[in-house]
């Protein structure tokens, strides 16, 4: 059983190198009131590093402290920290996967429809190298859940690329749906539909290009971090160096 967040006493392990040390509980608690940018950056990178190595059994003490924090405050607080990190960093990649997972949870039917439309556009011929079959929503969410829980032990670069491939398919599907609707809007019954519902439908339609662009950018960022991770491993450097 992990110790409570308050039991750490605000102490971090002394290190002899310059890799980010694990943030103290006090730093987290100050986040809502405005954490110092440098401390926030340190917290984002350190939490990403520990989360991604937790499933590989490294540094048990730091792992327990991260588990304790997520038990008390939830993964949402960590996601908020990651959202401020560089797009081409580990916390930046975790934020994009968290956001992709949230998109699926908020609109499962819409995402499923977009994925099917994207695949129907012969997306397979344009798929990222090494991902011949883009994963579906269920597999993507399961993988991201494992990563966010610190339980993922597979190849992280492949996980990022598979999430990126899924995002690209969904983005393509959204663009296809937008183009079709623009050419031939679905008929709406004037009796059964209120002005507010019509306006909501129009606004949702107008948001589609922006949603597709965001997914495409997230996919590009995930692929960039995956390449960094792979290069670090190939050159036998510690993958934590890109955190």
Key attributes of the depicted protein:
64% helix, 243 residues, globular, disordered N terminus, mainly alpha
How is this structure best summarized?
By secondary structure, this protein is an all-alpha fold. 64% of the residues lie in helices and 0% in strands. The model is unreliable at 1-33 (pLDDT under 50).
Number-wise, the strands total 0
Measure the end-to-end span: 28 Å
Question: Which structural class is indicated by helix and strand composition?
Answer: mainly alpha
Helix content: 55-70%
Range of strand content: under 5%
Return residue spans where pLDDT drops below 50 for at least 5 consecutive residues: 1-33
Identify the overall geometry.
Answer: globular
Radius of gyration in whole Å, from Cα?
21 Å
Tally of helical segments: 9
Question: Mean pLDDT, rounded to whole units?
Answer: 76
Q: H/E element string?
A: HHHHHHHHH
Biggest sheet layout: none
